Each structure stands twice: as structure tokens, then as C-alpha cells.
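Subject: design request, 352 residues
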């Protein structure tokens, strides 16, 4: 029985993997002994990083933060329900179909990006300042298209239903260079724009803020503006009718002064009553028009720029950092190569 237990113990020990104690000092000495090879790896990678940094265009990033105003009609019960399911009460409280959570989707839509084509940007070109549309800038600077190859615009608006090949290419470029996100708790929107020119980058970021505000404002005030236009039409019609009735009453009164006929007095009273009715309608429409104008102002959202866009002073991809990073990873790669080669030589010796 004892022999059998020893046999089982031996079999169990055979299942335990061969654990070796790592001698860090030994590997340190190996790396120190081959420091020249590691150094050459780092120098080679640093030179490669320098070439890469010089050939790569500079990239500038502009970040902005917006705090949009919400039209809220939620009750306290809706707020409590929102807290139960982990959603923002401000989001449930809005009656808008276009609320902050969908703003990033708006910015990513081809129709919205196409609205940025005509934004005028100014950039440096061979010690000179050039002004062109954002569409032409992207095709020339990033699309590597000569100015002569860009088709001349015929003045017609871009058709979002059917983009041309060049328009689709520019839209893809813009989509890759614009990022947006919304904080679910605060409903604040972060927008970042990446471009190869600092001024162009800030200009595009500012244009995005303005276009987004215009888009949301048009949606929020569309019905109120239609109501305002309707009441303005009624106001103008009732004003004209009142002036005509007042003029008719005035003319009849002037032409029948001193006339004591009963029929004349009745007609004068009728014209007076008609003028008063026209005035009441005119006054009512004037009040409705003022309320409609106030409604338009009330529905107009306010976008607070918590962080307004500004021209960046430094590029996001520093050439020095790029070269140093390449050198660092080159040294790491050299160390791995030296240790791998040493390990392979040790395995070859054990095999012999």
C-alpha cells in the first residue's frame, strides 16, 4: 500500500510543469553585454521616426463644448421614473424629436456635412494666404487633386439625394475628421475637429457650432414661425378691413351732416357698429400676432459655448514626440531581439 502511494505521488509530480526561477540579473548582464546592438536598434528606429514625422502632415485638433437649452414639459413623476431606469430626466422631459442625444448623428449625416462645403477657409500656401471653400481645400490639400481638376460649380445647391463622386469623397473626409459625443448626465456636447491647418480647424469647428444651432433652431421654431406668419396675414387683413370701415363711416358722416332723417341716422349707426366690430377683430389679431412673435422667441434655443473654438497653438502630432517614440520602441524591440536570440542559443545547446 505504501509503495502504491509513492507511485501515485511520483505520477502526480510528473504532472507539475517545470518551473524555473527567472534570474533577472543574468538577463540584465546579457542586455548590457549587447548594448551596442540595442543602441543601433534605437538609432535606426529614431531615424525612421524622423523620416515618418517629416513626411507626415501636421494635424491640429480643436475641441469645443456646447450646452444646448432643452424645452422641458416633464412633471416630477417623469423625473422620478427617469431616475429609476437610469436615464437623464432632462432627456425624458423634452418634447423635441431632435434632442441632444441625436446631435452626433446629425453631425455625421451626409446632408449636414454637405452644408459645410461652402464654408470659406483661409490657409497658408507657399508663404501666401489662400481663401477658398472647405470643399476645394479638402480636395486640394487632402485629396491630392489639382485646382484645375476640380469641377467648376454651376451655382446650384448640393443635392443630398444624389452626391457626385467628388462630393462623396469630401463627405467621407469630413466624417473622419469630426467627432462628437454627448454626456448623458449633463447633456453637454463635446465636438472635436482635426485638420492639417490650425486656422482651418478652428474655422470649421465654429461653422459646425453655427450650423448645428441653425438646424435645431429651425426645427424648434418651424411651427411657431408658421403660426406667426398666419397671424400676421390675419392682422394685415383685419387692419385693412378696419381702415376701410372707418373710412366709410367717416365719409358718410361728413356727407350727411345736419341731415335729421331717420334712415340716415340708422345707416350712420350701422357703419359705426361695423367699424367697431372691425376694430375689435383688428385688435384681437394684433394681440395674437404679438403672442405668436413671443412664442417664436420662446422656442428659439440657446446654445451656450462652454468651451468656444480657438486656433490651436501646437499641432497634435509633435514631430519630436514621434521621433522619440519610435526610438523608444526601437530600443524595446532591440532588447526583445537580443533576449530572443539568447534564448534560442540556449535551447540549441540543450538540444545538443
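Subject: RE: design request

Done. Sequence follows.
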Amino acid at each position: 500500500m505504501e509503495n502504491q502511494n509513492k507511485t501515485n505521488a511520483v505520477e502526480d509530480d510528473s504532472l507539475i510543469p517545470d518551473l524555473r526561477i527567472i534570474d533577472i540579473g543574468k538577463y540584465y548582464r546579457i542586455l548590457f553585454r549587447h548594448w551596442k546592438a540595442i543602441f543601433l536598434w534605437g538609432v535606426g528606429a529614431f531615424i525612421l521616426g524622423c523620416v515618418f514625422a517629416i513626411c507626415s502632415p501636421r494635424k491640429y485638433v480643436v475641441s469645443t463644448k456646447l450646452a444646448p437649452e432643452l424645452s422641458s414639459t416633464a412633471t416630477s413623476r417623469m423625473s422620478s421614473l427617469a431616475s429609476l431606469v437610469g436615464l437623464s430626466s432632462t432627456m425624458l422631459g423634452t418634447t423635441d424629436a431632435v434632442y441632444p442625444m441625436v446631435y452626433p448623428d446629425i453631425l455625421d449625416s451626409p446632408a449636414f456635412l454637405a452644408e459645410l462645403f461652402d464654408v470659406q477657409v483661409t490657409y497658408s500656401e507657399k508663404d501666401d494666404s489662400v481663401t477658398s471653400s472647405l470643399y476645394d481645400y479638402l480636395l486640394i490639400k487632402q485629396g491630392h487633386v489639382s485646382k484645375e481638376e476640380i469641377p467648376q460649380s454651376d451655382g446650384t445647391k448640393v443635392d443630398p439625394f444624389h452626391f457626385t463622386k467628388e462630393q462623396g469623397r469630401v463627405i467621407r473626409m469630413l466624417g473622419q475628421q469630426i467627432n462628437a459625443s454627448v454626456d448623458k448626465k449633463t447633456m453637454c456636447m463635446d465636438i472635436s475637429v482635426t485638420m492639417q491647418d490650425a486656422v482651418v480647424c478652428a474655422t470649421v469647428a465654429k461653422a459646425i457650432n453655427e450650423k448645428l444651432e441653425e438646424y435645431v433652431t429651425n426645427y424648434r421654431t418651424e411651427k411657431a414661425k408658421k403660426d406667426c406668419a398666419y397671424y400676421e396675414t390675419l392682422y394685415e387683413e383685419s387692419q385693412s378691413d378696419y381702415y376701410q370701415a372707418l373710412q366709410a363711416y367717416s365719409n358718410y358722416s361728413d356727407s350727411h351732416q345736419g341731415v335729421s332723417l331717420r334712415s340716415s341716422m340708422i345707416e350712420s349707426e350701422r357703419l359705426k357698429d361695423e367699424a367697431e366690430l372691425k376694430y375689435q377683430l383688428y385688435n384681437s389679431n394684433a394681440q395674437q400676432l404679438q403672442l405668436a412673435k413671443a412664442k417664436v422667441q420662446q422656442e428659439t434655443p440657446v446654445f451656450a459655448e462652454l468651451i468656444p473654438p480657438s486656433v490651436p497653438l501646437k499641432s497634435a502630432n509633435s514631430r519630436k514626440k514621434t521621433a522619440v517614440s519610435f526610438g523608444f520602441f526601437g530600443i524595446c524591440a532591440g532588447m526583445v531581439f537580443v533576449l530572443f536570440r539568447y534564448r534560442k542559443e540556449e535551447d540549441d545547446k540543450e538540444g545538443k
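Residues 225-299 form one domain.
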